[in-house]
């Protein structure tokens, strides 16, 4: 039996694929390669080049490969851009999830791990976000991820009396960084790590947007979590679903304390050996002072822990980024 990874040619999905293979769980990938890279998929892993919006293709893939569960990573992941492209965001993230659930039901597949986001919380009014913290998404992206969680919940209720009730969990996380494979890198044009790496390689000075936040050093604080740790949690969740073990509807994959942008910049200079003083710019509208989540529940059930220091996260990402050429 195998597990289908949607978006498995992307940065996070490709790490999930490798973690599945290492755990002896056969991965299969479906990806339209709109932001993923075929080269990220190992040569011995089946890659279906197509869209999750293609209902017949998804069902055919599930049946052909004897899939027992789906790890749904595919989606339009740019929160800022989603404000300008709400219809596209909802099509990819909401309709895409609905199509996958419909194809799963038709093919008799009843396990799904959903890659959600800490964006479902918006700007929380607590220092440490937990699973039941109020959901107030501040972008179409965050809204679409919350709706995705609702879709899983509702399909679970609708099928609970059937012979194949949907078993599901949603994993929420924020800034995914680093690399566990020097050939797989974050190619996003919007994420902090690749933006800083590109600036340093091109001789430009990295930027910080705002140093007047209500934080110890004035720059905003976020969870930064290593992609390898994220991938491992997805695989453990998939195992629990396969084995019929108890699982929560959602988990926060958080660091518990967070890192500031200045701390990240200091680590960048230390690890790369390139000394720089970041350019200071005005804060961006809507950027909260601090968003940090507790990972206690995931630590209990999903072997979640922060296995990498900030320097290790930077070093692994820097190596992969330079290898990308």
UniProtKB/TrEMBL annotation:
It catalyses: UDP-alpha-D-glucose = UDP-alpha-D-galactose. One of its GO terms (biological process) is galactose catabolic process via UDP-galactose, Leloir pathway. It holds the Pfam family Epimerase. Its EC number is 5.1.3.2. It is an enzyme of class 5 (isomerase). Pathway: Carbohydrate metabolism; galactose metabolism. The keyword Metal-binding does not apply. Keywords: Carbohydrate metabolism, Isomerase, NAD. It comes from the Bacteria. Its cofactor is NAD(+). The keyword Isomerase applies. Belongs to the NAD(P)-dependent epimerase/dehydratase family. NCBIfam families: galE (TIGR01179). This is UDP-glucose 4-epimerase.
